[in-house]
Amino acid sequence: MWTTHYDIxxxxxxxxxxxxxxxxxxxxxxxxxxxLRVCVLERSLAEPDRIVGELLQPGGLAALEELGLEECVxxxxxxxxxxxxxxxxxxxVHIPYPSERTGRSFHHGRFIxxxxxxxxxxxxxxxxxxxxxxLIECPVTGRVLGVRATRKDTGAEDKEAFxxxxxxxxxxxxSNFRTAVMGAxxxxxxxxxHFVGAVLNDVHLPIDKHGTVVLVKGSxxxxxYQIGTHDTRMLVDVKAPLPSDLKAHILENLVPQLxxxxxxxxxxxxxxxxxxxxxxxFLPPTEQGGRHxxxxxxLLGDAWNMRHPLTGGGxxxxxxxxxxxxxxxxxxxxxxxxxxxxxxxxxxxxxRKALASTVNxxxxxxxxxxxxxxxxxxxxxxxxxxxxxxGGDCINGPVSLLSGITAxxxxxxxxxxxxxxxxxxxxxxxxxxxxxxxxxPVTVVPTLDQYPYxxxxxxxxxxxxxxxxxxxxxxxxxxx
Length: 480
Ligand SMILES: Cc1cc2nc3c(=O)[nH]c(=O)nc-3n(C[C@H](O)[C@H](O)[C@H](O)COP(=O)(O)OP(=O)(O)OC[C@H]3O[C@@H](n4cnc5c(N)ncnc54)[C@H](O)[C@@H]3O)c2cc1C
Known about the structure:
five-stranded mixed barrel, seven-stranded mixed β-sheet, transmembrane, flavin adenine dinucleotide binding, alpha/beta, 480 residues, binds flavin-adenine dinucleotide
């Protein structure tokens, strides 16, 4: 039964698991001590073909460099990303990353294979193709001692036991072990919408080497970014209930609102490609290592904390988490001593807050605005676009938050409520289009007699902004 014993077991060799395996091999050990013995169990080592994790923000690239994994974006036809272009009603606004920082976009599978190659070469790390089916718990204390898994290469049906002082579960957004590990402290992921993905061939985006976000009426945003010399990813946000014919929905309702240069490539892609779909989930982080969570195990990556993928922050958070855990683990003397690990988990939880909270809150708040589905959110969406048009700190601030260059929920709070106030100002002062008595569109500025109505609407807009932002902030500051 006691077949194999390691220092650390990692379930899943995706973004977080592979990076952690490599990072553990770089931890300096006391003189005379062996390198950590790490086992990574991954259900399929074949190149994944998924529509996730294709744009790494500059902050994520910096974390990748800190982990000594920067080579993983070399030789995979990755594209440097210089910022964003947001389009509303056919009008673009240019949002470059500050200080000439860049991110990278790529085919997810190629990047994962590069990360896995690094993990396989790492000292003390063994990567095994096996599906983990259960956690092994001590019948007396309930502590997790390891996992049971079925190997792929042997073809054996039998489950094999793997034991370790510490088990790290990094099995992604559909984690099978989240509930078992978190116990009563666990929360359920909330699915905000779905992304439907296709790859377009040889298209020119409005601004080269910039992610494009098109704000469309009656639907969530459409994202486009180049993932290879000839390939551009299109992700279409679709809210529940999903249309029965997704292709028809995209062609009839969304394509007419996208830049005309994209119409034919999208049509071709929809004819030739299978549409893929992924849920866009939000799962706030709950502190691990407390009374309710299991001993001997921890969750990492999407298994523990998820944000809306609109802002492409998932991999950045995962790499940043690995950087922090690696540094904290250097101080742990005995991994089997849960008190030590538990204190590490406490420090990790709060040390990651600056970046992770900023990215988590921003992703959902921005999604609520960009996917506006009522009148008040629509005012905020237009106001947000106009805020970007002001330029200067009104674009540098938000894009630095989104890209992980600035990690500060306080700065995020400032920009979010600045957008809300500017939206109200714009509603009073800026011309907008109305339909006149003859059914023709005319441009008008609000008149004094409309002011009482607009004052009431302003209060409602501020309230809406609070309802969007403050509960998200709460999910990050609550400490139990
Ligand atoms: C539609 C969409 C688009 C996204 N786009 C971006 C983006 O552009 N940029 C970005 O930074 N983030 C993006 N994200 C988020 C990003 O993909 C995740 O945050 C990231 O992949 C999380 O890494 P992970 O290691 O936790 O999970 P994963 O990378 O999913 O890895 C989990 C691994 O565990 C393995 N596994 C699962 N179960 C088992 C088991 N029982 N036994 C053994 N192995 C198992 C899986 O095979 C997989 O290899 C996107 C998410 C979505 C939904």
